[in-house]
Write a structure and sequence with these properties.
By secondary structure, the protein is mostly beta strands. It has one helix at about 1-15, and strands at about 25-30, 35-40, 40-45, 45-55, 60-65, 70, 80-85, 90-95, 105-109. The protein has one domain: Immunoglobulin-like (Sandwich), CATH 2.60.40. The N and C termini lie far apart (about 40 Å).
């Protein structure tokens, strides 16, 4: 009986958190003007698919914070898709060539 209960507990845990499950998705945009943004200001910790739309050949989209440091290229444009694990804390995104004016934060709770 004890073993059966343990097995049930394991099955319940696996069902609750399937391997590789995404917590959610996020979008980020840079350009075509001197703007950079993320669709959300605050998200819960977890695994996310981040879709970045880089609409300018003079900007990049650089996301950094606990365990994450990802960027699109400055000269490149198009869509980048990243899979990242966001931990509790503050993440920053910026355009590196214009970091003083083009930046923002994403809070992870
Ligand atoms: Cu820029």
């Amino acid at each position: 009986m004890k073993r059966y209960i343990l097995l049930l507990a394991v099955v319940a845990l696996v069902a609750a958190a399937p391997a590789g499950a995404m917590t959610g998705s996020l979008t980020g945009t840079v350009g075509p003007g001197f703007t950079i943004s993320m669709a959300k200001k605050t998200v819960k910790a977890g695994k996310y698919k981040i879709v970045v739309s880089d609409k300018a050949s003079i900007h990049d989209f650089h996301l950094s914070g606990p365990g994450v440091n990802k960027a699109t290229s400055v000269s490149g444009t198009g869509t980048a898709t990243w899979t990242v694990t966001l931990r509790k804390g503050t993440y920053k995104f910026r355009c590196d060539p214009h970091a003083s004016s083009m930046h923002g934060t994403l809070k992870v709770t």
